[in-house]
Each structure stands twice: as C-alpha cells, then as structure tokens.
C-alpha cells in the first residue's frame, strides 16, 4: 500500500513510529506491506519520492528540528501529484472552518484515494458531503481516531454492534479536560495541569478548543451525524467547558460525594437527534466517576444488547497514531 502522510505532528509521528516498530509483524500477520511515498507538514517541511522515502530518516529529521525537503511545499499540490493508495490526514483541527483538512480530503477522495483521518473538523462539519464524495469515487473514508483516539469506538459501533439500533451515547469524550480535572483534584493549579496535558500531547494545538468544550462538541457532532444519521453542525448544540470550575468547586463536590466530569451526550427525542456538552457532577459511585486522567469512557445504549460501555485512551501520540494503523489494517482486509 502506498501511503501519503499529510500532517506530521504528534499524531503523524506516532503513526510513523508504529509503522516502523511493527513493520515485520504486520507483514507476517496481516500480509500488510507499505511504502510511504510522501510527507507534507506546514511546519516540518515536505518530502516526496514515488519509489518510497526513508521513513526512519524522515522521523529522525523532524525530531532533530530539521526540515523535510524534496517535496511540494503545499499539501494540496502534493495530494494532486502523489501516486498513493491512501492519504493519512493528521493536520491540526479547526472546528470552525474544518480547513485545511476538508480540502485535502476532498482532493484525495476525488482522485479515488482512500482517506484515513484523525481530524475532527472535516467530520464534524462535512461528514455527509465527504462520505458522498467517497462513495461516488469508490474510495474508503475512515476516521477511527476522531473520537476516543485509538480506542476502537467507531469500529465497535460499525462492526461489533452491527444490526443494532443505537439509541443514546453518553460519557467522557475529552482527554485533556478529564486530565485537568483529575490533576486539580490532586492539588495542581488549572495552569499547571493544562501545561502537563500539553506536554503529554493530549491538548489541541490551541487548547482553548479543549477547555471550552469544543473538542468534545466536535466529537458529539461526529457521532450524531455518522451514527445517528443527523445533520447537526457543532455550534447548533449547547456547549459548556470546564473554565468556570474552580479548585474550590472540585473540593466542595468531593465533600458531597461527587466529582466533576465533562459529559458529552447524544440522544433522540422522537425523530430528532440532540447533542450536548456540559460539566456535570456525577456521584462518586457512578462508573464514570472512576474514569481518571486522559482516559475516555462512553456508554452506548442499543435496542439489542442494552448498554455497552467502552473505556480507553482518549488522546495521546501512540494511541492516536494507532487509530490510523487500525484503519489501515481495515483497508488491507477489505482489499481481499
Ligand atoms: N485534545 C483532544 C483530547 C485530543 O484531549 O481529547 C483527542 O481528540
């Protein structure tokens, strides 16, 4: 499989590390063989070779703060030119415009290139349009890493719960805020906890998107549109983040046997699909209260097996990189 990597920050590098680390095992176990033909990143430079680039060398270059060279500067130009089977899109998320990722994805799909993305903007804003372009061009459009990073939520709903009607989804959808709330309870200030979340690679490029609830909002919108068939836009839904919660509020909640969690919720009212994001005080005995750090947890209510809960990482370099590897293996299996 010829791969084109657009966006080579935390997530793109996380994927590259896994591709290198597991190269032999993936070939042996899944007959998955790959060549990376190009990498383009607006900060880290660009490299392209139709015969394949040296991925380990490219990774070493960006880790030593040097620039990649030898490829088109503009991502769109690279996508137009590249002869690749799959584009892996991991540029930064812009939940208000969905760009530049939406244009990248459209361009690749129109060429019949499969697309794997972890970028929440295009999914939250343009799910239907992009899925239609994919279908028309017989290309696959996969996005496991957009919700709960590498925890297999999309897979779980698409494959494992196939044939079930999904009635409601509720839980913790943002790693950064859950991490901040956890560390504040341990005594760290809001600023210290946020800085740690950034260092650990959990926070968005602009962390406002996490703490104001926008990242969770993008995720509930993605689920509302892709799982429930709604056509919601992110900012149509009520959304409140964690910025108003003080260390004192956290202490008081604990004294009352409760804990703050930022809860994302998608449900149906008659035929209408509703979604929201809000901080809620959950009882310490509630299963969600025990979900700490950057871990996410979602309970999926179905008409078949009642409730299924998935708990797992919601952010992180290796974890989100893994979501793309998982989608690649799904594509590999579809080819057969
Ligand atoms: N900033 C996001 C989070 C990354 O903290 O959950 C994963 O989408």
UniProtKB/TrEMBL annotation:
Known pathway: Amino-acid biosynthesis; L-threonine biosynthesis; L-threonine from L-aspartate: step 3/5; Amino-acid biosynthesis; L-methionine biosynthesis via de novo pathway; L-homoserine from L-aspartate: step 3/3
GO biological process, one term: threonine biosynthetic process
Residues holding NADP(+): 7-12
Keyword Amino-acid biosynthesis assigned: yes
Identification of the protein by name: Homoserine dehydrogenase
InterPro entries documented for this protein: Asp/hSer_DH_NAD-bd (IPR005106), HDH_cat (IPR001342), HDH_short (IPR022697), NAD(P)-bd_dom_sf (IPR036291)
Pfam families in the record: Homoserine_dh, NAD_binding_3
Binding site for NADPH: 120
Active site: 219 (proton donor)
Keywords, ordered alphabetically: Amino-acid biosynthesis, Methionine biosynthesis, NADP, Oxidoreductase, Threonine biosynthesis
Aspartate/homoserine dehydrogenase NAD-binding domain segment(s): 7-144
Documented EC number(s): 1.1.1.3
Enzyme class: oxidoreductase
